[in-house]
Amino acid sequence: MSEGKPASGPRPPIVAIVGHIDHGKSTLLDYIRKTNVVEGEAGGITQHLSAYEAVHKNSTGEHRITFLDTPGHEAFKAMRSRGLEVADVAILVVSAEDGVKPQTTEALKLIESVKIPYIVALTKIDKESANIEKAKMSLLEHNIYLEGLGGEVPYIGVSGKTGEGIPELLDLILLAAELEGISADTSVPGEGVVIETRVDNRRGNTATLIVLNGTLQSGTYIISGESTAPVRIMENFLGKPIKEAGPGSAVGIVGFTPLPIIGASWKQVANKKDAEALAQAARAPKTPLAAKAAEVPIEGAEEKIHIILPLVIKTDVAGTAEAVMHELDKIPKDDRLEVRVVLKGVGPISESDVRLAGSGTPGIVVGFNVKAEGVARELAERLGVSIGLFDIIYKLSEWLAEELLKRQPREHMEEATGTAKVLKVFSLAKGKVILGGRIETGSLKQGAEVKIMRRDLELGRGSIVSLQTQKQAIKELEAGKEFGAQIKTSCEPAAGDTIEAFEIVLK
Predict the structure, then answer these.
(1) Is the model's pLDDT at 291 over the cut of 50?
(2) What is the pTM of this model?
(3) Does 97 lie in the same domain as 219?
(4) Is residue 193 part of a domain?
(5) Which of 367, 417, 478, 488 is the least crowded, having the fewest Cβ atoms under 10 Å away?
């Protein structure tokens, strides 16, 4: 801790930016950070929970603010929820062009559930089609009562392109934080929340942490549940090495064993021994009773399942796997097919991932923002495992739905193609019958499979060897026509019986 600085005092506010997809969250944050990430976002949408720090200068001096940029797509609800649970203040972004949309109301419910103050930012006011008054009325219709319109929710019109309204928005954030009385003590060991994890191909297990209290210092250790990490490689939100991080900071830490759970709390301890002791205590062994219960199958659970399909999910960061699971849950279910997620992991798709997916029924490996190793692709081809790689969540969802449809078990079903009434039986030879009849529905074809029915009783089955009408051989005959036919069958039909032609189809 630097000399002269008070140990306890106001903490830089942590702000979650939430709202409907494509309402300008990332563009707004880009202007604040004076950088540009939007053009690098796959599909133009934010698909990670990202933390960034900004400095706002006003008449009272310089103020640090930490922003959490959350995805707007419906699939990333868990990420938005996690961001809001960490935040002190929320910015509800609403496009001045579109007004309230589905994820706007969902984001508001999440804000209300964590009980933090929020500010409405009416974005895209630089657009010709922007209509702030109409957007305000849209908010009012959804019970969002703004200041001056019967409520107390502050709002401001902003443009992420020109910067209009952004200084005033930052002042509103600082005011909301001041009213909340947010404070921290820099003299104690650091502690906070894990907001994202990933596997770096070169460096290993990495996590993004928010420091909520204390000062995280290099040379110490971090413990989060069963996970530990030495604080040797610590980087700020720009990826630059730092030696310490104070309250409100977003930091990247490399070297976790294993990856911590996103959303879990973490704290700093002095040394490796202390960290390992706490991690060991967190590894509560499963009781014999619990272990035995886990092994007992639920009676009748597998009765309707014809196929168990293994699914491996690999993503660049752990939080994205939640979005993939969300999309999986939305796909219509078939009782005959159980999709069993055998692995959710981070990092590239490996040979072992494919082997896991192909250990029984050839399954599926889906990757989001990751690559598949060459040996994994080769093995997948040999085992019949499908690999899908995506960087846009709705594309992944569409592909996965198509793959599951292909894998649904098919049953051989009889589909009626025509019926005929037997008018007269001309001869009954062993295994063959010649008869005359009239087609009542559909058609009869040479070679068709038939059932011979007497009222509701099936006498037997056979196939049409030949068809004639007006002494002319014919391949197919439509409803209303009379015919003569030779049918291969072991039963003995009589006048008045019904011939039902059918096809075997897969359904």
Answers:
(1) no
(2) 0.59
(3) no
(4) yes
(5) 478
